[in-house]
Write a structure and sequence with these properties.
alpha+beta, Jelly Rolls, 2 domains, 4 helices, globular
């Protein structure tokens, strides 16, 4: 993963600049990963030192923590999974277009890229995408145009939370 993209993402989280689903992904990473927790502490401290406080009416630091905790502690056997065209199973989660993705052992999604930044956090199992192998709590940031092929790694089912940056309004038409 590009460390500049990672730190920009975590800095945006500290400043409350992420969309709701991207903020849920950041909170999951912070909850489930020591690296995420340490990085969040650094950016929170930087924000306070630089006095980059959000508007007083907005508590951006952990506004999405309850949703992240619910996802992190989910019993995935009760999730209403729907099979997508690619064979991968999805379930809507989050406030926007956030979703859970399930890859069964040996299963892979087709190779693809995205038009906007995609954040994937592993909740259970492991997956690989041609760029690395990721486990519980890992945050994978897929930059626009970068091709990948997510696949379950090992003998366990892999479940991830996946969020994408909303497309700017001028790209929707």
């Amino acid at each position: 993963m590009n460390s500049d993209t990672y730190h920009a993402f975590m800095m945006d989280h500290a400043g409350g600049a992420l969309s709701s689903d991207m903020a849920i992904a950041a909170e999951l990473h912070i909850l489930l990963s020591e690296t995420g927790h340490k990085t969040a502490d650094i950016w929170d401290a930087a924000r306070h030192v630089l006095a980059l406080e959000a508007a007083p009416e907005a508590d951006c630091e952990h506004a999405f923590l309850p949703e992240a905790l619910e996802l992190a502690c989910s019993e995935f056997s009760t999730v209403p999974w729907k099979r997508g065209l690619s064979g991968v199973h999805y379930a809507k989660r989050g406030r926007g277009k956030g979703k859970l993705m399930r890859l069964d052992p040996g299963q892979a999604a087709p190779e693809h890229s995205h038009s906007a930044l995609e954040a994937t956090v592993v909740l259970k199992g492991q997956f690989e995408d041609g760029h690395g192998v990721y486990g519980r709590g890992d945050l994978v940031l897929g930059r626009p145009g970068v091709r990948h092929r997510p696949a379950a790694h090992g003998e366990e089912m892999c479940i991830c939370f996946v969020a994408q940056e909303p497309l700017p309004f001028w790209r929707l038409s």
